[in-house]
Amino acid sequence: MLVDTSVWIDYFNGIANAHTDLLDSALLDGNVVIGDLIFLEILQGIRHEKNYQRTRRGLLALDQYAMLGKDLVDPCAENYRALRRKGITIRKTADVIIATFCIEKGFPLLFRDRDFQPFVEHLGLQAVLIES
């Protein structure tokens, strides 16, 4: 599974919830991959050098994927436009890239960011955990 930055932030801040518990288990089982865009978002948010280096080393141990290339530009634009036609505007381009990558590559996504929900409801994104 791919894990969005929204869950990683809670995880690194020691916040216990269903998402971080699932991430912890999946890390132990070796079932987590990371995208370069998510890796970047995580590293950008770390203020202290010691935490930066420790986090970077840990994340480098995961299988890493390039999330946007020439083959994904059109699907990203198409997904954004499909949702916009339904009256849904996704706030961040990064979320469009992450969701589209997961849809195209068949990775389920663990997320807490509400902007991914329209991708689940309308475009076939597989959510690892459904909130009730």
Folded structure, characterized:
This protein has 132 residues and is mainly alpha-helical. The chain has a single domain, classed as 5'-nuclease (Rossmann fold, 3-Layer(aba) Sandwich). It contains 7 helices and 4 strands; from the N terminus they run βααβααβααβα. The chain has a two-stranded parallel ribbon. α1 (5-12) crosses α2 and α5 (70-85) packs across α6.
TL;DR?
The longest helix has 16 residues, at 70-85. The protein is 58% helix and 8% strand.
Compile the SSE list and pairings.
Layout (H helix, E strand, L loop, with lengths): L1 E2 L1 H8 L5 H12 L3 E3 H9 L4 H12 L2 E3 L4 H16 L7 H13 L3 E2 L6 H7 L9
Parallel strand pairs: 1-4, 2-3
Helix pairs in contact: 1-2, 5-6
The helix content, as a percent range, equals 55-70%
CATH architecture: 3-Layer(aba) Sandwich
Question: Poorly predicted ranges (pLDDT <50, ≥5 residues)?
Answer: none
Strand elements, count: 4
Our estimate of the beta-strand percent is: 5-15%
CATH class: Alpha Beta
User: What would CATH call the homologous superfamily?
Assistant: 5'-nuclease
Given helix and strand content, the structural type is: mainly alpha
- CATH topology descriptor: Rossmann fold
Question: For the terminal residues, how far apart are their CA atoms?
Answer: 20 Å
Number of helices: 7
Shape call? globular
Biggest sheet character:
2 strands, parallel
| Overall mean confidence score, pLDDT | 95
Keyphrases for this structure?
Rossmann fold, 132 residues, 8% strand, 4 strands, mainly alpha, two-stranded parallel sheet
